[in-house]
What does this fold into?
Amino acid sequence: MRVVYFAWVRERVGKSDEMVEPPAGVSTVSDLIDWLRTRGEEYAYAFERPQVIRAAIDHAHVRADAVIAGAREIAFFPPMTGG
Amino acid sequence: MTATIRLQREDFDAAVEQAALTRGRTDIGAVVAFTGICRGEGIDALTLEYYAGMAETEIVRHVAEAERRWPLKGVTVIHRFGRFVPGDNIVLVITAAAHRGDAFAAAEFLMDYLKTRAPFWKQEERAGRASWVDARDADDAAAERWSARPHAAE
It folds into this structure.
């Protein structure tokens, strides 16, 4: 699946998007964050406070307990500041 | 209902957009036009990043929700992205209805949701240093009231 990052999450991870293949057992957005955090210091830094990170699956807002099976694109970003 | 939704780098002209929305119409009795402008307050510039694909989807969804809640005749939403200096236009919301109450409420609803649910992020430049703008609790509270309070028309 493709993972995309925005704003300071993107800056901390150091890339705007990537393809990932999480291992079996990574079934929710929360699990995916936990797994990403193990991938290096930049991920640990980006996701150091997972409670402030917002997520979307295929362009729709989701909660941390959302199931990621079948997702094409998962986005992680800070709270939005548009308008 | 006529809906115009655009994400663009270039500026907009609120008067032109309003005229386009109401031209030839005799069923519209009220138009509310809101323009959000880049404030100074020590800011040299503002950069707006957005999630292409999702931003459009979210705005379309909220315009549809506004249409469900209020009897609207037309809506225009234009959100700019890129780099702004104080005084630049950032966002335009125009709502048209038969009566002013519906136009006012729908415009406020759309702005509250754009602030908190549309995937845009602002970065400020102050004295050459860039920092991401934190989400404001006041904006969350403003958006929250639309889910807490049923509308009179429902």
